[in-house]
Amino acid sequence: MSNETVWDRTEPPAKPSPTPLSRELVVGAAIRLADAGGLDEVSFRKVAAVLGAGPMRLYGYVETKDELLDLMVDEVYGEITPPSPSAGWREGLRHVAHGIRAAAKRHEWFVDLVGNRPHQGPNALTHLETTLATVRFDDIDQVLDVVGAVMAYVFGAVRGEISELRAERSSGMTEEQWQRASGPYLQRVLATGRFPTLARVMHESSDRDPAERFETGLGYVLDGVAARHSL
């Protein structure tokens, strides 16, 4: 196994073959498998089968599954358009937030692989650079704090939304159907009077679109940043 990162390692020279391979083709096949069935569907054997190649041929392009997952994440980061260089911090961070949400809706597995240490692929680094650059504070620690707070909200909210979509698929019930099925139990519990605020949620809250809920929560975070820094 090479000591170089996948980002530094060159691909094998192209050779005439009935089934040509490239790192791009390998990553694309892995993403299609993950989009269709989740990360459990991603294996060298299944990727090779999609490409009509032997699994051993893939190791010339990607040495480990972790490398393959890193490449997949970086490919998705490349789909997120950066904010305009002239955008203000609020407009820029809102653009990034909605870009991440849209990418995660296309590739639900994306949220399972991000949010810890920063990824080091070229697209991920470009994404991080342009996101940080939209917050033009003199104190770089404050820049990191602001971006970190916004991204914590974004990934938390998107994970919740994706989890709900997965629950609907696994249970076969929409959120509304699940609420109706559990309604009698909840009515009995709330009738005890022990949970008055939850009772208000059940009887008074509106059924808002997920995109509207996301934007509202994002607005609270951005308003908090503005208030903290008198912007």
Beta content: under 5%
Distance between the termini: 51 Å
Number of helical runs?
A: 10
List unreliable stretches of 5+ residues: none
Instruction: Count every beta strand, where a strand is a DSSP E run of 2 or more residues.
Output: 0
The average pLDDT is 90
Detailed description of the structure:
With 231 residues, this protein is mostly helical. The mean pLDDT is 90. The chain has helices at 23-37, 44-51, 55-58, 65-77, 89-106, 122-133, 140-171, 175-190, 196-204, 210-228. Helices cover 63% and strands 0% of the residues.
Main attributes?
mainly alpha; flat
Write the layout of secondary structure elements.
Layout: H1 23-37, H2 44-51, H3 55-58, H4 65-77, H5 89-106, H6 122-133, H7 140-171, H8 175-190, H9 196-204, H10 210-228
Helix pairs in contact: 1-2, 1-4, 4-6, 5-7, 7-10
Short account of what is shown:
By secondary structure, the protein is mainly α.
